[in-house]
Design brief:
alpha+beta, two-stranded antiparallel sheet, 9 strands, 21% helix
Amino acid sequence: MTLPVPVHFGLPDGWEPVPSRDAAFAAVRSPTAGIMLTGGMWPVATPLREVAAESARDLRETADEVTVLSGDEIGDGGFVQELRFTAGDETFVRSEVHLAMGEGTGQRAVVRAVLTCTRAEFDALAGDFREFVGSIGPDV
């Protein structure tokens, strides 16, 4: 998978890049904690809230008991969404940040950064994820 636009980013200390079929970039911190970057093209008129809702629907196809905990616009071109889901006997938290990264011909690129980890890991890893998201920018 590739991103719809070139971006640069920095990976916080302690995270190891890993190959992924499902993401343009993926890294892990533990067997249950991972960061990934994905993206796609969307009609300019599609609100980022709807892009995030589709992401939640996609998660429901592969996970159990998916609950959207929160969703808020951030800045001029971002939307953050927090979800909880179960897989096997484990409960996970998923934090998603959807970033609009450019428009053209009625379409805009949306890059999605995702942190998935157990609830027990979340507080310790949330700062790393904020650092990662803050480092994402267009590679011009």
